[in-house]
């Protein structure tokens, strides 16, 4: 059994979600190979070769794979993947974009966003926004799977010494092209990788009030997130959204401020180790999942919190 | 330009679902069913393209039980011109649905196919990408903006770090994200008119598509419940607990 893991990267660094995906592959068992597809990714491949438990790194370095357009990358993965028992990718926007296209090309069903490995062919995954957990078995020759990073503790980024092998195949479907991107800039840690997350909801009242959360987050070294309600109200951009329709996080500490606790939000953060809820409505459902609840006006509580840490 | 929109009948997003006692699935008896919210956004986008004069005809298709005709009628009331139901009482996988949609695409030859990015029941997020693969078309997934110009479409996509724009040759597949638009409600006169719009019913057999699956759901369980903790009285007490009890700051 040999497993192919598609490396998640932005062209500059291998993303932490790759380490969680390799951890899922290790649970399945067998040799783990990592594919790095992109343009000018030689250094990335060297970094991927150091990931603990990886036996081989395949590098597909070609202009066609820049920006990882699925029309070009999926045929590459499908071609390479035929020789593997499993193909895994992180359930990031990239993984979700590419992998179903691979599965269809291989004529197999995909299993999306697994949170545990029961055996080499059986996996658990959340359905209905996390309100039910399905156990799914695959009899496909090549099992195509996306991995929810928070379900698996990452393997070490250093310590491995995999061989690196170039892959020649260039697939350019010629039907899509990259136009541009607008990436949010932030000095704070990335939401899905942060040890502490401070999130604001509709109770923040407007975008300007998020400055209180930023101040607290900077004291704690935390990332700042938001509920869908805060995003839909236009307080903050969508890439800050935590929830079933946004990012799934599982930090050591999650501080929910002015968030009522809609099911769709809980689905994105309920695996956090410690949850704190600060809300002036003591009936808010968020208190049902919080380890520590504080019924208070957030505009008084947050500045005080910031002073005390 | 002809636009094809795929919609799915799912449990209404306001319903709190319960797992069946025998762990065979989720209890859907006497539960309110609706059009998947991401599919509503897909219908709305197609209707706006028609209002702008870009789309000339909107065909809406659903794969599902005969009761999915309700959701097709809703789409017709929102502005679709005609509907196709590929009727199947089975619980189909995303790949099977994509194969059936591919057969409809072959028949209808649309320039643009719009789908929701995922259904809120199975949460697969696969069908659009699979349809794109089977058709050999480009895909603009998780779209927050769609602009047609000539024989291509520019799609701005919601990605983890922000937004990305790609250009796709038509025909192409687009899957919708939440901020693409805000769907309208159907007016009563339009609901009445929708009853007279054509609705064709097909079967997987008639389309010559096998819906065999490589996946099998063994059981469905309720998630592990998280128990409520304690209420603290002050910020000072909260900080003390986080430092000394939970040891997380």
Q: Would you kindly provide a written description of the structure presented here, covering whatever features stand out?
A:
The complex is a heterodimer of chains A (309) and B (249). Chain A is of the alpha/beta class and 309 residues long. Helices cover 26% and strands 28% of the residues of chain A. In chain A, the strands form three sheets. A seven-stranded parallel β-sheet of chain A has the order 5-9-4-1-2-3-10, sandwiched between helices. In chain A, strands 13-12-14-15-16 form a five-stranded parallel β-sheet. In chain A, strand 6 and strand 7 form a beta hairpin. The longest helix of chain A has 14 residues. The radius of gyration of chain A is 21 Å and the shape is elongated. The termini of chain A are far apart. The mean pLDDT of chain A is 95. Chain B is α/β, with parallel strands linked by helices. Chain B has one domain: HUPs (Rossmann fold, 3-Layer(aba) Sandwich), CATH 3.40.50.620. Helix content of chain B is 28%, strand content 31%. In chain B, helix 2 crosses helix 5 and helix 3 packs across helix 4. The longest helix of chain B has 15 residues. The N and C termini of chain B lie far apart (58 Å). Classes of the chains: A alpha/beta (309), B alpha/beta (249). Strand 16 of chain A pairs parallel with strand 13 of chain B, so a sheet runs across the interface.
